[in-house]
């Protein structure tokens, strides 16, 4: 006999604990069960030919940029280069979906996104060449400094987007991070802040399978990285990161949602790092050729080229033109990177604080004296 | 910046006893009233007014967009503040306690301290990070750390700490107005210390970067800051009975460091003791002693001594008095300054 059936008892109705409130319905936030695709599906027919051609030109240029930057490491012109070969669709789409006033928050691997946004590649590569930490003015370009401490750029994107929204400005921040970076505390904190504040931010995770040598399976037991969004109360989108059209569509939607005041989105792009982590890494120690070859058949340029040629939007001539434009960019980059940058060691003291402290002034004179001594030895009039 | 600015629309009040906590609150309030880009953010800074009530009333006056209860995540708080500063705001972040600021250390060391430098001045970080620090309030573990050495060892940060009610107001106003990031260490056991102070005509104070001689003397110099200033002043009074006339220097600012004032004092007295709560090994006293030796070697009558917290994790409340530098330990050190030679 239950309480309700007890004769004479007041009817008992189960009620939720007093503090409990129904929260966000998780169902609409859930990502697709497999990575969203456009190329090779019926939806591709609806894609704008001009957009397809532009994406293609950018991918070809991006691939050439990656090759050129890697070559520059071999010539000792770059201290290090983390290549995004194979990930060009993500890099290019991330830059293309942003408007002039929006901000991009790149990681060390994302110089291609920076270049695709329109920045001079020489400026984009300053960090990796080693002549300074950031080679451009972030406020002028609306590109945050390339960020090396993993995931630490994500809360910056949230704060900036939040500040812009408080001011009533129409600004969206798009922040890029790798699969490994999603394990960091800052990833969690940034997504949580963004959702609580409904900040206009898009988080783009490029899941390229590895954090240096460590595969995703050792990084997370989540159903997908996109699923993590649900825990924060924001939508997660799972996309084929090598399908440039799908990437462009999903990121555009997320950016527009943020712009309309709909809050943040987490996008997981499934892609693959075709090269080693950087030129200093040996990928043969942790992955086999078969795996890499499988991804060669899923190359972002090939996928798009197939679509374009099938639809008669691209012929031999078009392919040649795209390649030539990329060659021109590469030749210019090669030439300009072959010049030694002119550095002033006294710059070390210029921007530590708004004004040099007494201690820095002292060290500055010491360094100046050392440089003068060096110069006089070199010019032969030293003791 | 002028620390004597009177916020518009506040009625004049004559000087009367005010606590350091009240002066800090007023500094935040006046800075927010004067500059709409000043945003206060942290844990419990809204309705509660902060666990030490330093943000009391701010949310009521300025609204939740200007005084924000954030999610409970220190790296996230500071990281978001970095982004806000990138967009031109002037965030004032409250860390609830010294030891709970550690999760934010990566943001502090890798971004706050370096952003101006790595962008060649394009992105200054006009941030103030307020951290209640130090012991002596009977706090259980993780509530009494003296973490200044970590911050001092990070180029790009200013590290300051007031020890008086006037300085609490004046230095916090200057920290908020600074275009550089300032780690603003608030000695929590001095929160309730009082002085006659008028919020409407606050006394002008020395700028950040300048040390102040709090008690002139001729026999030896006690060099200290924050929570240990009252201890040193008390020790100096007690020392008169022994015939010592001690000078007390309040550093106020650990970075930038005022070598000039410190060296001038030690050259005058010929003897120096550095006093702080922070652990002695690797603590600020080692740096200060070295700087004095480098500058005053020929004036020194004795080695520079240190009276510091023990090299132990901060003790439980019932044992903390053995850890904190007290008057007796300071006087013992003074006695060891080779007077007999
Ligand atoms: C906080 C932090 N820890 C460690 C590193 C060293 N590190 C640089 S890249 C990297 C792997 C990152 O992998 P992922 O996030 O997947 O990005 P990917 O390199 O694949 O683009 C590591 C461990 C770092 N940069 N920052
Ligand atoms: Mg990765």
UniProtKB/TrEMBL annotation, chain A:
**Pfam families documented for this protein:** E1_dh
Residues annotated as transmembrane? none
Domain Dehydrogenase E1 component stretches: 67-341
Gene Ontology molecular functions? magnesium ion binding; oxidoreductase activity, acting on the aldehyde or oxo group of donors, disulfide as acceptor
- GO annotation terms (biological process): branched-chain amino acid catabolic process
The keyword Electron transport is assigned to this record: no
Q: Provide the cofactor list for this protein.
A: thiamine diphosphate
* UniProt KW keywords: Oxidoreductase, Pyruvate, Thiamine pyrophosphate
Q: Which domain of life is it from?
A: Bacteria
Which parts of this chain are annotated as the region Disordered?
1-35, 364-383
Entry's NCBIfam families?
PDH_E1_alph_x (TIGR03181)
* Name of this protein: Pyruvate dehydrogenase E1 component subunit alpha
Record the organism. Answer: Streptomyces finlayi
Automatic annotation (TrEMBL), chain B:
Top-rank taxon, per record: Bacteria
Q: Which cofactor does it need?
A: thiamine diphosphate
Recorded hits in Gene3D superfamilies, A to Z, give: 3.40.50.920, 3.40.50.970
For this UniProt record, the keywords arranged alphabetically read as follows:
Oxidoreductase
- What general EC class does the enzyme of this chain belong to? oxidoreductase
- State the Gene Ontology BP annotations: branched-chain amino acid catabolic process; response to nutrient
InterPro entries assigned: THDP-binding, Transketo_C/PFOR_II, Transketolase-like_Pyr-bd, Transketolase_C
| GO MF term list | branched-chain 2-oxo acid dehydrogenase activity; magnesium ion binding
Q: List residues of the Transketolase-like pyrimidine-binding domain.
A: 18-193
Enzyme Commission designation: 1.2.4.4
Q: CDD domains attached here? A: TPP_PYR_E1-PDHc-beta_like
Q: Which PANTHER family match?
A: 2-OXOISOVALERATE DEHYDROGENASE SUBUNIT BETA, MITOCHONDRIAL, 2-OXOISOVALERATE DEHYDROGENASE SUBUNIT BETA-RELATED
Give the protein name, as stated in the record. Answer: 3-methyl-2-oxobutanoate dehydrogenase (2-methylpropanoyl-transferring)
């Amino acid at each position: 006999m239950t309480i309700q059936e007890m004769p004479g008892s007041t009817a008992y109705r189960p009620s939720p604990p007093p503090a409990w409130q129904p929260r966000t319905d998780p169902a609409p936030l859930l990502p697709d069960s497999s990575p969203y695709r456009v190329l090779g599906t019926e939806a591709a027919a609806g894609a704008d030919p001009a957009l397809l051609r532009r994406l293609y030109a950018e991918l070809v240029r991006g691939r050439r940029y990656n090759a050129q930057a890697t070559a520059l490491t071999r010539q000792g012109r770059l201290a290090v280069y983390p290549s995004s070969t194979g990930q060009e669709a993500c890099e290019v789409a991330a830059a293309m979906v942003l408007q002039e006033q929006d901000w991009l928050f790149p990681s060390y691997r994302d110089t291609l996104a920076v270049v695709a946004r329109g920045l001079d590649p020489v400026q984009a590569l300053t960090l990796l060449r080693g002549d300074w930490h950031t080679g451009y003015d972030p406020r002028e370009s609306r590109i945050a400094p390339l960020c090396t401490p993993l995931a630490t750029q994500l809360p910056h994107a949230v704060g900036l987007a939040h500040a812009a929204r408080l001011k009533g400005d129409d600004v969206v921040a798009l922040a890029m991070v790798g699969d490994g970076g999603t394990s960091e505390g800052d990833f969690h904190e940034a997504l949580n802040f963004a959702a609580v504040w409904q900040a206009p931010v898009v988080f783009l995770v490029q899941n390229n399978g590895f954090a240096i040598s460590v595969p995703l399976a050792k990084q997370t037991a989540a159903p997908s990285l996109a699923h993590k969004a649900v825990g924060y109360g924001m939508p997660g989108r799972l996309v084929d990161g090598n399908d440039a059209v799908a990437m462009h569509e999903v990121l555009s939607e997320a950016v527009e949602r943020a712009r309309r005041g709909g809050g943040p989105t987490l996008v997981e792009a499934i892609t693959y790092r075709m090269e080693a982590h950087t030129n200093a890494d040996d990928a043969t120690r942790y992955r086999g050729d078969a795996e890499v070859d499988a991804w060669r058949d899923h190359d972002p340029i090939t996928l798009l080229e197939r679509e374009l040629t099938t639809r008669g939007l691209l012929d031999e001539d078009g392919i040649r033109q795209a390649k030539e434009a990329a060659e021109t960019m590469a030749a210019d980059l090669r030439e300009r990177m072959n010049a030694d940058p002119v550095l002033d060691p006294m710059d070390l003291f210029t921007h530590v604080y708004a004004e040099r402290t007494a201690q820095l002034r002292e060290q500055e004179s010491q360094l100046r004296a050392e440089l003068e001594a060096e110069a006089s030895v070199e010019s032969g009039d030293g003791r | 910046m002028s620390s004597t600015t009177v916020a518009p629309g506040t009625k004049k009040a004559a000087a009367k006893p005010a606590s350091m906590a009240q002066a800090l609150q007023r500094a935040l309030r006046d800075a927010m009233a004067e500059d709409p880009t000043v945003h206060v953010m942290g844990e419990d800074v809204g309705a509660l007014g902060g666990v030490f009530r330093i943000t009391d009333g701010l949310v009521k006056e300025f609204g939740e967009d200007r005084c924000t209860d954030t999610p409970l995540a220190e790296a996230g708080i500071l990281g978001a503040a970095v982004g806000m500063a990138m967009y031109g705001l002037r965030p004032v972040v409250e860390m609830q306690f010294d030891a709970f600021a550690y999760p934010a250390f990566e943001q502090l060391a890798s971004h706050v301290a370096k952003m101006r430098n790595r962008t060649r001045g394009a992105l200054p970080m006009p941030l103030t990070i307020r951290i209640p620090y130090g012991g002596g309030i009977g706090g259980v573990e993780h509530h009494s750390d003296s973490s200044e050495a970590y911050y001092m060892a990070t180029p790009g940060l200013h590290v300051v700490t007031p020890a008086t009610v006037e300085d609490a107001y004046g230095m916090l106003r200057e920290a908020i107005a600074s275009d550089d990031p300032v780690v603003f260490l608030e000695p929590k056991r001095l929160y309730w210390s009082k002085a006659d102070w008028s919020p409407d005509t606050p006394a002008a104070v020395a700028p950040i970067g300048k040390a102040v001689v709090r008690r002139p003397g001729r026999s030896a110099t006690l060099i200290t800051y924050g929570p240990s200033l009252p201890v040193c002043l008390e020790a100096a009074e007690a020392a008169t009975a022994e015939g010592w006339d001690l000078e007390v220097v309040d550093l106020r600012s650990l970075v930038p460091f005022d070598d000039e004032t410190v060296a001038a004092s030690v050259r005058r007295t010929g003897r120096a003791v550095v006093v702080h709560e922070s652990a002695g090994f690797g603590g600020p006293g080692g740096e200060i002693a070295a700087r004095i030796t480098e500058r005053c070697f020929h004036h020194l009558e004795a080695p520079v001594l240190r009276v510091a917290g023990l090299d132990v994790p901060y003790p439980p409340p019932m044992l903390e008095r053995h850890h904190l530098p007290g008057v007796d330990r300071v006087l013992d050190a003074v006695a060891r300054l080779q007077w007999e030679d």
